[in-house]
Amino acid sequence: MLASQDLTATALRHLIALDDSAYTSLAGSRSGLELMASVVHGSSLAGNDLANALSANPYEGAPFAWACRGEAEPVQDDFGLAS
Description:
This protein is mainly alpha-helical and 83 residues long. The protein has one domain (2-68). The chain contains three helices and no strands. The protein has helices at 2-19, 29-56, 65-68.
């Protein structure tokens, strides 16, 4: 999650630096700025999706290896132990 936020912040800093520079007066710079803006947008959406996934599936000490193998979720007893 932190890596995703760092990527977004870094891309946004670069976009702001480019926007405040003489680069904007160069011919063809608009496409470069739009590309950088799309990187910021994409990385922020990825961070949002990751945060939503973590919120919906909090880690509670149980391994999720069964999901990777395509198996059904193990049935748990009243104490949270898989049977």
